[in-house]
Structures are given as C-alpha cells and as structure tokens.
Design brief:
The chain is mainly alpha-helical. Helices cover 45% and strands 5% of the residues.
C-alpha cells in the first residue's frame, strides 16, 4: 500500500515543546530531492527526526543512512539536530540552525554528493541483480531518484 507524503499545515504546527512528532507508519517523509534553505534532503530528514521524537513513529524509516551522512557532512551530531528540530517552530528554524552550525563548505559538499551519488555507487549490474525491475528504468541513475521511485511504487 502506497503511503501518502505527509504535507500541509500540520507539517509546521508546533506544540508547547516544539515541532509535533510525525507517525511515518501512516505517511511518508517528504521526497528525497526536496530542499529547504538550499539543502537537498533536509525536509525529509526533518520529517524523519520528527518521527523519532516522543509520540512519533519512524515506521520502516531510519535516521542512519542519508540523514546521518548529511549531518556528518555538516559536522552536526544527530543528537544536536534532533534537539534543534524538537525546539523549532517551523522548518525555517531548522534551516537557520543548520546554516549557523554547519562546517564551512559542508552544505555545498553535501548537495554535490547527494545529487550526484549513483545507485549502488555506479555499479548498475549489482543494482539490477538486487532490483531486477531497474533493468526497465535506465532513467533511474541517482540514489535520490531511486529512493523516491521505490516509495512511489511500493517497491
């Protein structure tokens, strides 16, 4: 069953403790290529961290992987990012935090890596061996597009 992308006003609503937690069993985070403040994947990471807050549920999602890699490139710990999300009123607050705390060049380096990272680090044969349907989709080259496609098609 395809889960809807969580969207709308609830995305930036705040309770007394900060951003509201999300339940990713009933929806999915924003798309992998979505940007906030010029940072690719940041909206999706905000959603996943909101799901990790008390009262939320990550479902099948994890913080490990692209989100932790992004934060590592910024030299921001997962714990510090989680606290920034928890305290934020809106995505813009998180964007401001990241821009203020990311190491110099970290955002540019991340965007370059994330937007150019090929599926299976470019080993198409291995990717097709694991996901035979990829043989029919030569347009899927980059990991972010692969991620969105698999979610869009319940793969």
């Amino acid at each position: 069953m395809k889960l809807p992308t969580l969207a709308g006003p609830a995305r930036s609503r705040r309770n007394d403790a900060g951003m509201e937690p999300l339940d990713l069993r009933n929806g999915r985070p924003r798309r992998a290529r979505d940007e906030a403040g010029g940072i690719v994947f940041l909206p999706r990471s905000i959603d996943k961290v909101r799901a990790a807050l008390p009262g939320g549920d990550l479902g099948e999602y994890t913080i490990e992987g692209f989100t932790s890699g992004m934060l590592g490139e910024f030299n921001i710990s997962v714990a510090d990012f989680t606290e920034a999300v928890r305290r934020a009123n809106t995505d813009d607050d998180v964007v401001a935090y990241v821009h203020q705390h990311a190491k110099p060049g970290g955002i540019e380096s991340w965007n370059d890596f994330a937007t150019k990272r090929e599926i299976y680090q470019g080993d198409r044969a291995e990717a097709i061996a694991d996901h035979p349907w990829l043989a029919d989709h030569p347009e899927l080259v980059y990991s972010l597009d692969f991620l969105d496609y698999t979610e869009d098609h319940d793969l």
